[in-house]
Structure formats: structure tokens, C-alpha cells
Amino acid sequence: MAKKKYLIAEILCVLALAAFITGLWISRSGGTDKDIQTISAPVIQSLEKSGMTQKSNSDAIKTFGIELDKTEGVTYYSNDNVMDVSELLIIKLKDKSDGEAFRDKIEKHIEEQKKLYKSYAPKQYALLDNSIVEASANTVFYCAAENAAALNEAFKKAL
């Protein structure tokens, strides 16, 4: 009889765990309802003294070829020094199905930058090579910086 109680308890625990994981997955698959400022604020606080300054939406359009009408908001920071490839781009999309197209545009930008910096700026090339690009649900994150991993973590927590 005791074995039966343990078996039932084990089954209930497994079911509860499965329900919890399914709930998390469903809640994340739709994306975030937070606005771009709320998502970006903790990331911007983590920029430290990277030398990056906030850029306009026009700069993001020019740099990445993004279509602003497909976004709910854009946060773009880059370094004013042309010899520094540090960049941070966060996009909130209107339609999550556009994520891969935006990711492709960012990847194309990275490849173009790599071609420019490969032969004469190995540190900058390494930043590009280790950059982070993620398209998830209705957000896109791109960062080429010394602390890209920390900025990505701040971004994930903000979602």
C-alpha cells in the first residue's frame, strides 16, 4: 500500500512539473507585452563605460536596413569612434514572424563589418566574431561589445 502512495505522489509531481514547464513555454512563445523603454532600461544601465552613445532610428535604418514600420520600438547604441565596432540593438517587433528577417539583416551587417576589420583590427574583428544575435518571439537583440554576454543577460531578465 505504501508503494502505491509513493507511485501516485511521483506521478502527481511529474504532472505538476510538466504543467509548469508547459506554462512557461506558452507564456514565452507569445513574446513580451513590455514597451521598448522597459525592455532596454536595464540593458542600458549595464552598458558601463563602453563609449557607446544612443543613436536615432534613422541611424538604425541606415546601418541595418531595418523597416521601422514593422517595429514597435528600436533602441540603438554604437560607438562614435569608427575604429570601435561596439553596438547594441534591441528591437520590439509588431509581428513575431519578422524576427528571422531582422536577424538576417543584422547578420549581413556583421559580415560586412568583419570584412572591413579583419585585416587591420583584430580586436574589433574578435568583438564581431563573438557578437550575440538573438531573435526570440517579438524581440531581437544584437550586441558586439566587451560585455555582450552581461548585456544579453540583462536583456533576458528584462523580458
Please describe the topology of this protein.
Layout (H helix, E strand, L loop, with lengths): L1 H28 L6 H10 L6 E3 L2 H8 L6 E9 L7 E7 L5 H19 L4 H8 L2 E5 L2 E6 L3 H11 L1
Helix pairs in contact: 2-6, 4-5
Brief overview, please?
By secondary structure, the chain is an alpha+beta fold. It has helices at 2-29, 36-45, 57-64, 99-117, 122-129, 148-158, and strands at residues 52-54, 71-79, 87-93, 132-136, 139-144.
Describe the fold and architecture:
With 159 residues, the protein is an alpha+beta fold. The chain folds into two domains: 30 residues; 128 residues. It is 53% helix and 19% strand. The chain is built from six helices and five strands. It has a five-stranded antiparallel β-sheet with strand order 1-2-3-5-4, sandwiched between helices. Strand 4 and strand 5 form a beta hairpin. Helix 2 runs antiparallel to helix 6. The longest helix is centred in the N-terminal third of the chain and has 28 residues. It is elongated and about 70 Å long. The termini are far apart. The mean pLDDT is 87.
Question: Gyration radius, to the nearest Å?
Answer: 20 Å
Give the uncertain stretches in residue-range form. none
Helix/strand order: HHEHEEHHEEH
Approximate helicity band: 40-55%
Could you give the count of β-strands?
Answer: 5
Please state the structural category. alpha+beta
Biggest sheet record: 5 strands, antiparallel
Please state the average pLDDT score. 87
How are strands sequenced across the largest beta sheet? Answer: 1-2-3-5-4
Note the total helix count.
6
Strand content: 15-25%
Global outline = elongated
Provide the domain count: 2
Q: How far from one another are the termini?
A: 47 Å
